[in-house]
Amino acid sequence: MSRNGLPSRILPITVIDSQNPVSADADGHRHDEAGEGPRSLGQPAPCYLFVGDAPISEAEIAQEMQHHRAITPEHSRADAARALVVRELLRREVERLGLAAEAEPVGRESAEEAQIRVLLEREIEDRVPSEDDCLRYYEQNRERFHSPDRIRVRHILLGAPADDITGRFNARSEGERLIAELQADPVLFADFAMRHSDCPSKEQAGELGWLERGQSTPEFDRQVFRLRVGLAAFPVESRWGYHVVSVDGIEAGEPLAFDQVRERISDYLELQVRQRELQHYLVELQERYEVRGLDAIEALAA
């Protein structure tokens, strides 16, 4: 609860899936020109969002939106507004505590990134999960820990650029024709690969060998790992065109022992704890510096 008795709002900071330090994420979308953004007849863009007495203009939000892709402009605007609010909350707290002078940039950090890093190092306690914590998580999530699944694949690539609508249609139609013939006579696969495939693997009868997840393009990967052994009944689409695919073997990954994944679990749990601590810290900052206007922006995205 906030000091005025109303429920505290949580502004999310996502760190679990990020490869960057929190300080870099918080300052990762600084603008080249602070004044850039939509204007109306040369007048400054309006402001509907405030952190304390600091306005965040629609120009700033519009500039930030390019870094927040979403299904609608309203969702993108709300994501951008939240990111700017978080940045301003952290900036104001750095100023209040007088941390700017002691924040020396490390490596390629900007001054603001360094200040946020120093702030979070000071205010957020690092908690390393215990061995028991890690073991408990392992026991509760054993199905997540196994060596990669593998499939053995042959394919015939019928190439067509992604922007060639006619070429894509023809490639798909050709793939369906080849599949119909192969269903009647599977031994023709090697011959068809040599004659029709646009992939260098045609020299090996279309053989791609054993593949693990992530070794091919994402869209191809997602589809072929759902297939069963045998000739796929439909052409598989990718950025390169359409593929006639035969899965010749599937090997499920072997379970991994706790010792093999203990470090991975520890890192994950530590990030989860840090995420919760950051959320609690942001709630405290929102109680110190009133945020106005964000509810209305988020309501438009609901």
Rg, please? 27 Å
Strand content: 5-15%
The unreliable regions are 13-19, 29-40
Number of strands: 8
The biggest beta sheet is recorded as: 5 strands, antiparallel
The helix-strand sequence is: HEEHHHHEHHEHEEEHEH
- With helices defined by DSSP (H or I, 4 residues minimum), what is the helix count? 10
Structural class: alpha+beta
End-to-end CA span: 23 Å
Domain count: the total is 2
Dominant shape: extended
InterPro entries: PPIase_dom_sf (IPR046357), PPIase_PpiC (IPR000297), PrsA_foldase (IPR050245), Trigger_fact/SurA_dom_sf (IPR027304)
EC number: 5.2.1.8
GO molecular function, one term: peptidyl-prolyl cis-trans isomerase activity
Enzyme class: isomerase
Task: Offer a few descriptive terms.
Chitinase A, domain 3; extended; 8 strands; 2 domains; alpha+beta; five-stranded antiparallel sheet; 302 residues
How would you portray this structure in words?
Keywords: Isomerase, Rotamase. It comes from Lysobacter concretionis Ko07 = DSM 16239. With 302 residues, the protein is an alpha+beta fold. The protein folds into two domains: 22-127 and 272-301, no CATH class; 150-251, Chitinase A, domain 3 (Roll), CATH 3.10.50.40. Helices cover 45% and strands 14% of the residues. The chain contains ten helices and eight strands. The protein has helices at 22-26, 58-65, 73-97, 111-123, 131-140, 165-184, 189-196, 218-224, 258-288, 294-301, and strands at residues 47-51, 54-57, 150-159, 207-212, 230-231, 236-238, 241-251, 291-292. Strands 3, 4, 5, 6 and 7 form a five-stranded antiparallel β-sheet that branches. A three-stranded antiparallel β-sheet has the order 2-1-8. A hairpin with a 2-residue loop joins strand 1 and strand 2. Helix 2 crosses helix 3, helix 3 (73-97) packs antiparallel against helix 10 and helix 5 (131-140) crosses helix 9. The chain is extended, with a radius of gyration of 27 Å. It starts with 21 loop residues before the first helix and ends with a helix.
